[in-house]
Amino acid sequence: MKSKFVLIFLILICFFNLSLSFRFTVTADPRDEQEDWIFALQQIKEKIGGIGEFHVTAGDQDPEDERYADFVSVFGESAIWCPVWGNHDIQNETNIIWLREFNKKSPLVVNKGPEGSENSTFSWDVDPVHFVVLNEQYNGSLDHGIYRADIVDELYDWLVDDLEKNKNPSVIVFGHAPAYPQHRHLNDSLNNDIPKRDRFWKLMNQHVEIYFCGHTHWYSAIQVGNEIVGQEYTYQIDAGAARWSHNNNNISTFLNVFVNEEKSEIQVHVWQSKQVMGEFEVVERLDIPFLQITSTKTPAGGDKYFIFAIVLFVIFIAIFLIVNFIFNKIKGNNLKVTPNNEYEIENLIEQEDELL
Ligand SMILES: *[C@@H]1O[C@H](CO)[C@@H](O)[C@H](O)[C@H]1NC(C)=O
Ligand SMILES: *[C@@H]1O[C@H](CO)[C@@H](O)[C@H](O)[C@H]1NC(C)=O
Ligand SMILES: *[C@@H]1O[C@H](CO)[C@@H](O)[C@H](O)[C@H]1NC(C)=O
Ligand SMILES: *[C@@H]1O[C@H](CO)[C@@H](O)[C@H](O)[C@H]1NC(C)=O
Ligand SMILES: *[C@@H]1O[C@H](CO)[C@@H](O)[C@H](O)[C@H]1NC(C)=O
């Protein structure tokens, strides 16, 4: 009898972990380098077994219809792709219309952006993280109003409101242009307008663990603070480009991002290939703790998980007793259960670490 209870707890712990830890992948700026893009996607499949829950491309994935067709050819129709709007995506009316239509059907467009950007700025939740996608080409009324990226008042106000409503302990934001560009586009990113950039980054430091972007074609990860002291600062992670050609440093990059609820941290594995059509390797791992600044956030989440755990526990006991009862009826007292909820994310992390 004792061993059966141990088994219940093991299955419970397994299930609990699975439901609260997950991963997703990020690329940026493939543009029309189809062969390079497909190669990077195939490497995602080969090296880490797929995209995780969803795949975000942080802008400049034009022509959109072709890049999506490539994505589907590697991962299938059911895989979730999240194309962020970048400066090149708004240069062609066909791409703008395609992106709007695509997002109308996207399961990630849960909370819609401000008027005029309701199909290009949005947010959604995968516990314990709140995800936000920003369209930085939005000018306050039109989704493709500005070529030079900006966080205009309308977008900023929407973001403030969205982050205030959020109850999850962690927040990740995606946009196309860096706030603090490294290597390239040094005067042609969100720092186009320093007061607006500073206002945006202050908000990031109040709520957000990571701001993922692209635009420069050059991977970089930096932690930038502001006047808020005594806390961790937001990371800006530029995903580089999923291509070698015309990307300035000839390095193709993708990111594998684990959300580890148990450790309250986000683990980013950086995969790169420096040789055209050469195999990708893990070159860096960043462990980014949840900021956990707002004191009201954590208890709210905590309560929710506690109730969730109790409900799960009761369900498991019930299922166990029913299954046990049926089994005993059929087979006598000879129950054998193999827990098949193997915690594959943990294995994957270990495999990637060995490669580092
Ligand atoms: C716009 O994009 C579409 C779809 O990729 C393409 O067929 C068309 O030639 C492009 N138009 C211009 C002016 O670049
Ligand atoms: C966004 O999508 C909705 C339908 O889901 C549509 O009514 C609206 O006009 C779209 N807005 C823009 C700016 O594309
Ligand atoms: C956005 O751009 C459109 C087209 O250029 C323009 O008509 C509109 O007034 C702009 N909106 C704002 C708020 O600047
Ligand atoms: C970009 O900005 C930096 C610092 O703000 C300045 O030193 C540099 O001259 C600028 N470069 C260009 C090309 O405008
Ligand atoms: C990238 O590759 C091109 C052509 O293959 C070469 O001319 C250039 O020097 C390379 N750039 C770097 C930064 O290695």
UniProtKB/TrEMBL annotation:
The chain crosses the membrane at residues 305-327. Residues 1-21 form the signal peptide. Coiled coil: none annotated. Residues 23-219 form the Calcineurin-like phosphoesterase domain. Gene3D superfamilies: 3.60.21.10. Keywords: Membrane, Signal, Transmembrane, Transmembrane helix. This is Purple acid phosphatase.
